[in-house]
Amino acid sequence: MQYGLTDEQEMIAATVRAFVEKEIYPHEALVERTGEVPQEIAEEIKRKTIELGFYACNFPESVGCAGLCHLDFALVERELGRGSMALNHFFGRPQNILMACEGDQVDRYLMPAVRGERMDALAMTEPGAGSDVRGMTCSAKRDRGDWVMNGSKHFISGADHADFVIVFIATGEDMTDKGPKKRITAFLVDRGTPGFTIRDGYRSVSHRGYKNMILEFDDCRLPDAQVLGAVDGGFEVMNTWLYATRITVATMSVGRARRVFDHALGYAAEREQFGQKIGKFQGVSFQLADMITEIDAADLLTLAAANRLDQGLPANREIASAKLYASEMLARVTDAAIQIHGGMGLMDDFPMERFWRDARVERIWDGTSEIQRHIISRDLLRPLGA
Amino acid sequence: MKVLVPVKRVIDYNVKVRVKADGSGVDLANVKMSMNPFDEIAVEEAIRLKEAGKAEEIVAVSIGVKQAQETLRTALAMGADRAILVIAADDVHQDIEPLAVAKILAKVVEEEQPGLVLAGKQAIDNDMNATGQMLSALLGWSQGTFASELDIDGDHAKVTREVDGGLQTIKVKMPAIVTVDLRLNEPRYASLPNIMKAKKKPLDEKTAADYGVDVTPRLEIVKTAEPEARAAGEMVPDVDTLVAKLKEKGVV
Ligand SMILES: Cc1cc2nc3c(=O)[nH]c(=O)nc-3n(C[C@H](O)[C@H](O)[C@H](O)COP(=O)(O)OP(=O)(O)OC[C@H]3O[C@@H](n4cnc5c(N)ncnc54)[C@H](O)[C@@H]3O)c2cc1C
Ligand SMILES: Cc1cc2nc3c(=O)[nH]c(=O)nc-3n(C[C@H](O)[C@H](O)[C@H](O)COP(=O)(O)OP(=O)(O)OC[C@H]3O[C@@H](n4cnc5c(N)ncnc54)[C@H](O)[C@@H]3O)c2cc1C
């Protein structure tokens, strides 16, 4: 394992951080209050990100992007994690699963997505199928050479702004020793396709303005040209391309935790009770010590997992550990930050309560903490036959 | 035209500075350092001159400790073409005084023959506001300080200066030294492709001795102290009381 970042990596992180502080922070209060990102602000963030060459920087140079390695990209997302997710959605990072585009899909989806001309969303989850992705009932059946889709998806982030959605759908079932097993295919579905509706989802306590939507398919007809990857190859594209996305949750949790920590540290050094700074009380100072220790640990765990991907080493367990630990760390850190702020920590005059609410979803999406523990423990025990 | 831009590594403007226990200066160990904000404005202006076709090459130069390399990389990532690092100290706490900096810059100017030196009006650490002026004296070049607008036209430059009470516009002969003020421009972020390219741009390393300049401090720092905490204000019920209080204190 290597330690230490290069000057170049430090500069990437510093630049994104400066961008978030100047271009994202000032709009956060508005998004919190209204639950919406005004169109002109979204466009401005997107335009500036494109100008700076950061748009789709997770995509390779072969499609005109920066081609950042996993570690560099983790640094970008760590600093983005400081800011509102609703706003930094427009610091576009399309799903890298789009690299599976073939033929004219490249010009219809991949290239417009990385240029910021068309935005994507990704849909797997259904009301009846969350952690258990294979339990999905949304299905596509063959009809006169096309596919006809029926069913619904929910919790689909960013679908309100999406021009097209990458949808995972059951295209059949195989009998195995363990019972029936769904075959799954990924489809590219354009907004406006007849039989396809995107409607408002639920109001979430976390990340106001970063909406989750409901997708409905009602005899939605798609030609073969809309299949991403191979028919029945949904799990292959998922495993090839979505493997690394759990690092996003881990690294963004670290960035946000650092922002929260700075507030708590500053408050402890200013606020006086009993005639002295509350930071002088061990009850407060030791909390700060624990917070920073956990933040640094999560940071290193996450960057090490990203580095393993860059080295071409297996990283499934390490990514799961990073996602698990960083998201749970963020819960503890935001809770402690409120405690240090006393009653004011709960008031929306301070951003503490928002960070605390936002932290809650990190333990749920992209695989719950339990699912991460499942991945970690299976990785350890399966080779031993247990 | 070639533009030379001196950039200084200073304590980041967001850092809450702490005086060292022995009062000898500000504690710089383990604190975040950045490019002096006025120098960032100078780099930005140089890039704009290049984009406008008025400059061909931008050379950034930093004088100080080896770590000033990071500051130069930032200048390169913003858009400078190459950099010169002049190592003049080993200890981050040793400040190189304006006269020594100006003397080294004069030698660099001799070597590089720029048509313009664009510098910050001052560094936010010691607020000396002297280097540009001293360099102008050493070289015998014209100077325009506190620039809030710069317009280069052939062998002359029009410099709008922020002075007490308003704006003054002067015309100076090129080559010149222009020191820049806050409102000249808003520096850009480094773009990702430029960050990636910065590593490949040339960065020459020199020492103060290479230029035969003695950087021994001539000033003695007697004491460094935190500014006094501001006394709490006082609430008054109405304007009459306010006026009475002010009179009492002899302010009006
Ligand atoms: C705001 C938000 C945005 C989202 N965005 C998207 C998106 O853009 N696209 C998308 O496809 N999905 C998205 N999701 C879905 C997200 O990935 C799921 O919520 C997550 O996978 C959990 O599924 P579930 O909510 O149905 O919970 P369930 O799977 O029903 O889990 C309920 C509980 O049971 C536990 N559990 C389940 N199985 C096991 C097991 N085997 N062992 C132990 N415990 C278990 C879970 O850990 C959890 O505690 C989003 C979710 C939210 C909340
Ligand atoms: C919703 C709400 C309703 C309220 N209603 C009322 C009300 O009706 N009437 C009323 O009078 N008050 C009320 N309060 C005030 C409440 O009792 C105070 O918020 C509480 O006593 C904490 O004080 P503080 O918020 O100023 O935090 P602080 O006292 O500033 O504490 C900040 C942090 O420092 C820590 N700390 C402080 N001193 C020490 C020490 N010696 N050792 C270790 N740690 C220390 C605290 O534990 C905390 O973590 C209310 C508060 C809230 C949030």
Q: Notable features of this structure?
A:
heterodimer, A: alpha+beta, Butyryl-Coa Dehydrogenase, subunit A, domain 1, Butyryl-CoA Dehydrogenase, subunit A, domain 2, Butyryl-CoA Dehydrogenase, subunit A, domain 3, 3 domains, globular, B: 252 residues, 9-stranded mixed β-sheet, two-stranded antiparallel sheet, binds flavin-adenine dinucleotide
Structure, explained:
The complex is a heterodimer of chains A (386) and B (252). Chain A is of the alpha+beta class. Chain A has three domains: 89 residues, Butyryl-Coa Dehydrogenase, subunit A, domain 1, CATH 1.10.540.10; 113 residues, Butyryl-CoA Dehydrogenase, subunit A, domain 2; 143 residues, Butyryl-CoA Dehydrogenase, subunit A, domain 3, CATH 1.20.140. Chain A is built from eleven helices and ten strands. In chain A, the strands form three sheets. Chain A has a four-stranded mixed β-sheet. A four-stranded antiparallel β-sheet of chain A has the order 2-3-7-6, with no helix packed on it. Chain B has six helices and eleven strands. In chain B, the strands form two sheets. A nine-stranded mixed β-sheet of chain B has the order 9-8-7-10-6-1-4-5-11, sandwiched between helices. Chain B has a two-stranded antiparallel sheet with strand order 2-3. The longest helix of chain B is centred in the N-terminal third of the chain and has 15 residues. At the A-B interface, helix 1 of A face helix 2 and helix 5 of B. Bound molecules: flavin-adenine dinucleotide (2 copies).
Q: Summarize this, please?
A:
The complex is a heterodimer of chains A (386) and B (252). Chain A is of the alpha+beta class and 386 residues long.
What is the number of beta strands of chain A?
10
Q: CATH superfamily membership of the largest domain in chain A, which one?
A: Butyryl-CoA Dehydrogenase, subunit A, domain 3
Estimated structural class of chain A: alpha+beta
Oligomeric state of shown chains: heterodimer
> Any idea what the shape of chain A is?
globular
The biggest sheet of chain B amounts to: 9 strands, mixed
Mean pLDDT, all residues of chain A: 96
Specify the CATH class of the largest domain in chain A.
Mainly Alpha
